[in-house]
Model the fold of this input.
Amino acid sequence: MFAPAPVNLLDFDLPGLVAWFESIGEKPFRARQVMRWLHHFGADDFGQMTDLAKTLRVKLESLACIAPPVLVAGQDSSDGTRKWALEVGVNNRVETVFIPDGERGTLCVSTQVGCALECRFCSTGQQGFNRNLATAEIIGQLWWANRAMGRDPKGDRLISNVVLMGMGEPLLNYDNTVRALQLMLDDYAYGLSRRRVTVSTSGIVPAMDRLGQDCPVALAVSLHAPNDRLRDELVPINRKYPLKELMAACGRYLEFAPRDFITFEYVMLDGINDSDAHARELLALVREVPCKFNLIPFNPFPNTAYKRSPATRVRAFSSRLQEAGIVTTTRKTRGEDIDAACGQLAGKVEDRSRRVERRLGVA
Ligand code: SAH
Ligand code: SF4
Done:
């Protein structure tokens, strides 16, 4: 005989928690009370929920648990960036990064253990894929980081923005990601505005359409190349969802998005995608999509063949885009000394399926 695993309350968004409370004969407002305890106050013990009757607390304890991922390490960069490693099962870790920038504090969250998409310039992609993170493991990163960061003297949280730009492709872990997004937005949980929550995707076209319907938040699209030939090589998922389809999906998304532009991310790889000719081709490609560009100087990792474009080249490329009227920023490299910069998050992945071709039927 074995007992069924208790339900982890961090896996539910609010409608899910209400439904579960009803299934155990409890009123919806109890679910809302508990949600506030879990996410507003970061409670990890039913005993802390002092406005619930003792009998209800005992009942919840017998049926459910509060199980965030296990925090195994924290590291602080000299520039204020902080990184935490969370254990998500035997031999697997994911990383989450806090990046302070003036008034803004951004948490960069992971959605998968590794990634199956094997973008050539990405350390996570080179590690292979193990599994999707559960909702509790995605929201658990914000849960832990809020605990660790605390609040400012006014009582506001230090984490004002969330970007799903850590390990993994969020739109290939759709349901768990959307549930975690709903929690980020929910006033009973984290209450962030849709404009302050950004999903970054390599361009999973059908899932972009679904996201626009289900949970529109700010969208960043990892472009990295101005034509299919180069993008097929750098971002292999392009073979399945080529640029024409991707641009059309960006246009459709904007009908629902909380912002009136798409952010295109573009990693600057020396001699590969960073010439003036590439910039011109890019301008023609995005002509019909209201957008901003975020240029990301390539962050090297062991055994990579790529090099970061020189700063003068990044500036020239940026000027070409800006001369055409496109707002273009260059991402500051943060947290490099603790391997917390974009594309450097490696966590620990026991690879179970490296081949993008096998998982996605590409090529
Ligand atoms: N899978 C999603 C989100 C995670 S990657 C996506 O691809 O959008 C987050 C961002 O970091 C992406 O724009 C990605 O292209 C970029 N990135 C990956 N590796 C990088 C590296 N080595 N240097 C700089 N940026 C990198
Ligand atoms: Fe995956 Fe994004 Fe890295 Fe590509 S860039 S391998 S989609 S995490």
Notes: The chain is about 35% helix and 20% strand. Residues 23 and 97 are 37 Å apart (CA to CA).
